[in-house]
Amino acid sequence: MLKFALAGNPNCGKTTLFNALTGSTAHVGNWPGVTVDKREGVYKKLSEPVAVVDLPGIYSLSPYTPEEVISRNFILDEKPDCVINIVDATNLERNLYLTTQIMEIDVPVVLALNMIDVVKKSGDKIDAATLEKKIGLPVVQISALKDEGIDELMQRAYEAAQEKRSGSTVLESSPLAHVIDDVKIALRCKGVDNPLFHAVKLAEGDEIEVAAHPDTVGMVDEFKKQFKDSVFEGDFEALVADARYKYISANFSAAFVRAPRKEGLTKSDKADRVLTHRIWGIPLFLVILLAVFHLTFGEDLLYLNAIFGFANDVSTGNAVLDAFVAVFYSSAGVSTPGAILFNLMGFCTDQIGGLIGRGMEATGAAPWAQGLVNDGIWGGVASVLSFVPQILFLFLLISILEDSGYMARVAFILDRAFRKFGLSGRAFIPMIMSFGCSVPAAINTRTLADEKERVMTNRVIPFFTCGAKAPILAAVCGAIASRYTGVDAGLLVFLLYVFGMAMAVLMVALMRQTSMRGDVAPFIMELPAYHAPQLRNLMVHLWDKLKHYVKKAFTVILASCIVIWFLSNFSWEWKMVGMEESILHDIGSFFQWICTPMGFGYGTAKLNQFGWVFVVAAVTGLIAKENVIATFFILAQALGGLAGAEGQSDDGIAEVLFLMEQTGITWQALISFTVFNMLTVPCFAAAATVRGELPKGKFKYTLAFWLLTSYIASSLVFVVLSWWWTAFIVAAAIALVVLYFVFRNKGKIDLGRKKNKAARQ
Amino acid sequence: MEKKLNEFIPGERGIVVRIEGEGRIRRRLFDMGVTPGADIVLRKLAPLGDPVEVTLRGYELTLRKSEAECVRMEVKDA
Fold it and tell me: Which of B25, B27, B32 sits opposite A62 (nearest CB)?
């Protein structure tokens, strides 16, 4: 099968084209660096099926970050039959810079001028025929988004792939033409593939090339000694880059006719004026973030009820109608969209659960089977499912932020603040992504150029509460809010999210002072133009997420639920017993003492008896964080059996409320429990991904880092919340640590570091 | 008049004369189109005064002042 590679600058629409060609639903966003790994699909509309490979975006073939290496190596080593070079037609000059490099490789190349619809709309004109003549490559105008010109593009690529092509360069009239030619011939005699490309890179002094061809580099050095010019002073790298851009503006830019612009600001400029405003930029970012969490988790829309205090429970006399009205409006106020979705889903799962329960009873199944199905399987799965619409809503809001182009601006406005703590603003993008899921976020750290920055970002990614942990926050905060008046669930959730972010920043600062010393990586980044989020794109995102959740609920979580149910209902002798004598009880109790400082180990008499429930829940969270809530449910059912209580709802908030009553856990301990789950080792899938992204040997320290951080932080949270005056002690301790580092950095304190340094030297 | 890019004020325009500084940053700047002869307008500063946003070759680029310091500019009158 023929293989076509899609190559081009970041954010020029490669993945959009890939999706259009192959019918895939790969993730698309409006910021540079969404795709960080190659992915393959098949295009079937030609006379034979063709493999299409989507590559991470690159600005040049001298790689700068790990994901750019993937693209370069693919084009050079895997020898695709044709490279489709996608060019953002609205930004021709910089995009063609990469084209002038790809041209130098011995591979058929077709140029796809993408976003031609945007160009036409602005009144600009591109003369594709002229460009094709000047550049010597087939040029096709397309719009990947509107599905225009794509079949023609593939047809021309197919034709191009039938013939061999040897590289050509735009440097033929540059002062380096001779030396490039000599090196090329020398390389060709040695049997090196793509001699022209390597010759140019050698002339530039690219480190990878110099290391790969040590015997040929002498020719360049020799030439450099004789070469004299006043402008570049022997700096061939600058000379080559300059020659490429000069050639582009002299020859290709003529094909581009810019329509006279009306004086004034574009829409993008206007949006930027507000969103990256000198004073309002940062407050606005915080407001947007608060709005996202408020709309998802809040119960009192826009805090109207807190301000005006109008809301009352509606009572019509009809219980079903009342329940239905309560979905939208209750004494807490008008529900936010997220809360409405949660209430509706809870209503549905309760109804289905009731049906299953009655069905089982009617068939006269054995009591253990009824228990397994009602409490183990359906209960556990339903408690997870009940949060799915709400979490999808959160995803929708994050996708809108991603798709609009705001993410890159967030990196821009926060870079300075981040640098104080030792990260570049670019690192904030994977962090925001991990509000969705840590797995793609960890993979995205490849876009960070600096290794230390990559390690640190991977370590703190779990601190940005992911969609699977959100139900724990929602359930705990919802339960606390409904038990204590004057507490707002949405605000409490937001504070916990902020706490996680603050911990991330704090831990990065600490690592920068200890194990990860060094300078902050450079920050040079493209800011894409804003555009309205694409509805189709958003729906594709959500559909993918929904599939992911439902699949997870009915596989991993279902299996875990069955195991947990068995362990909590059977004894070591494999007899069905009450929870008090179960296997799970024994295992949990064995580890319970460890959790005492965090508030859910030993404490009151009731807690001594039941604290192990929380230990078990936290451990099952390692498999998938949704399990924490599922475990809560199963164990709450078992507890209900013990206490003789009946008729609980399947929704997570009710479960936690019930657990609070039965186990005597304090709200402080519940918050500490949540914090522990937020900061500790993430689920297996995320941990394995992080392991893959870290350099060898760093994972064991990362595991220790997660365990220690979560244990210490949640213990402190518990202590400070329970005895407010301890806040002063904690604050003083933190101040001491900060002072130590400040003085040490000024060179005023030196605890044994001089000795180490002397020993090293 | 010659100036470094980090000394520009919002709205100021100039032409790149040369790029100084260390290997990787230099190469990245070249790749992004910051080469001698390029026309650059400093658009604005970030809320905390750094990084800066510039327009060049028809698109928006952001870089820190410390990186902009490597870029020697010839100021052009508006």
Answer: B27
